[in-house]
Specification:
Layout lengths: L4 E5 L6 H14 L4 E5 L5 H11 L8 H25 L3 E5 L2 H11 L4 H12 L6 E6 L2 H9 L12 H17 L4 E5 L4 H23 L1
Helix pairs in contact: 1-8, 2-3, 3-5, 4-7
């Protein structure tokens, strides 16, 4: 039986790492075999591409270069990790996926979303996440949280207006497909955030079971 593909999205500082651990615990409690991974990254080659993308540099990175590197890493990740795991019946939990490309490159950079859609189809064929959890938070709060954890990478050095557009992109994506997305208010307490995630996961699990029955 094909596994399920769950992605977790959000701007900087929304708490993805903490809440992915919560999702892993939920899957374990359900006795569901799973694999956790991330984008960009997930394989040795894709992790090298991640380093290229995130490293601050004096040379300006062309928007098209950035977009193609994102999908190059994604193609490798899908071929070597995600698709084999799904085919083996495992659930895959991925820290960011193509919704991030629409949000960061499409809305943040202002790139042609039709071009992104063409690359999405080329690389992914019909594969799309079964459930996407968007951890949503006001940009200023998220950036303040992110500033405490490490030296800013190339994306984290962007202006607040860039992240405002990214956040808008995520919310627009969610509004277009209410069946696949669950928007979680990540500005609440951790207990409240994880209660909302738990509810979304339980609803998704019940729907998945009904389809099997």
């Amino acid at each position: 039986m094909q596994g399920k593909f769950i992605t977790i999205e959000g701007t900087e500082g929304v708490g993805k790492t903490t809440n992915i651990a919560f999702i892993q615990d939920w899957l374990s409690d359900k006795n569901i075999g799973f694999l956790s991974t991330r984008e960009p990254g997930g394989t040795p080659l894709a992790e090298e591409i991640r380093s290229l993308l995130l490293m601050p540099r004096t040379e300006t990175v062309c928007d098209t270069t950035e977009l193609l590197l994102m999908f190059a890493g994604r193609a490798q990740h899908l071929d070597k990790v995600v698709i084999p795991a799904l085919d083996a019946g495992q659930w895959v939990v991925c820290d960011r996926f193509t919704d991030a490309t629409y949000a960061y490159q499409g809305f943040g950079r202002g790139m042609d979303k039709t071009l992104i859609a063409h690359l999405e189809q080329l690389v992914q064929k019909e594969l799309r996440p079964d459930l996407t959890l968007i951890l949503d938070i006001p940009v200023e709060i998220g950036l303040h949280r992110a500033s405490k954890r490490s030296t800013p990478d190339r994306f984290e050095q962007e202006q607040v207006s860039f992240f405002d557009r990214v956040r808008e992109g995520y919310l627009c994506r969610a509004a277009e497909n209410l069946d696949r997305y669950a928007v979680i208010d990540a500005s609440k307490t951790l207990d409240e955030v994880q209660a909302a995630i738990h509810s979304a996961l339980e609803d998704f699990y019940l729907q998945s079971q009904r389809k099997i029955d």
